[in-house]
Amino acid sequence: MRRPPANSLHHQAAEMLRQQIFAGELAPGSFVDEAALCERLAVSRTPLREALKVLVAEGLLRHEPRRGCFVAEITERDLQEIFPVIALLEGRAAYEATEHAGPADIDALQVLHQRLQDHAEAGRITEYYEANYAIHEAFITLADNRWLAQVIGDLRKILRLARHQTLQVPGRLQQSLSEHRQVFAALQKGDAAAAEQAMRNHLLAQRDALRELARNHPSRITP
């Protein structure tokens, strides 16, 4: 059996590491043990180190000279600075998605929103998060703007380090669902400006939820 090309191996290793970071299997601030990862991922040191460079460039890892790599810790300041920026970008994506959406696209989004509602009603935070992520991805795809997609994608990787935190705030799950309904309702009506504003409001509400969490439960926000 032929081995995958070396560049393919380091891309595969990078993706596996991303998923472990997003799943919390590699905790924020934890040391990246290269020898253990080589064994776990079944790759040699060369593609692993190339993968680590990719994740350092993405901001998911930080490199300390003579010490190695550590999983990035997203701070409260990071979140307060990122959310206004991504609110603008995803708002624009919602605007362009509304302009491009056809009946089949609206039907597909209806299915995703029903799934979101089902998870919210059942209090399934992990499943709600995944459906929420899929909806945001659908809007970005519909926008069909590669520059928006690239910049939003980079910022969303960082925000995934705090993926469940806002949904832990009492009442936030239902509030988030209501915000998504407002965005979708605007898209259904073909009102691009309203969709843009509703999406901005949704992202900024996440920032406000994090502020509340930081005030009431400071130990649950990365210092």
From TrEMBL:
Segments forming domain HTH gntR-type: 7-74
Pfam family, one: GntR
SUPFAM superfamilies to which the protein is assigned, alphabetical: GntR ligand-binding domain-like, Winged helix' DNA-binding domain
Keywords, alphabetical: DNA-binding, Transcription, Transcription regulation
InterPro entries: GntR_C, TF_FadR/GntR_C, Tscrpt_reg_HTH_GntR, WH-like_DNA-bd_sf, WH_DNA-bd_sf
PROSITE patterns xref list: HTH_GNTR
Gene3D superfamilies xrefs: GntR ligand-binding domain-like, Winged helix-like DNA-binding domain superfamily/Winged helix DNA-binding domain
UniProt key word Heme: no
One term of GO molecular function: DNA-binding transcription factor activity
Protein name per the record: Transcriptional regulator, GntR family
Organism of provenance: Acidovorax ebreus (strain TPSY)
Lineage start: Bacteria, Pseudomonadati, Pseudomonadota, Betaproteobacteria, Burkholderiales
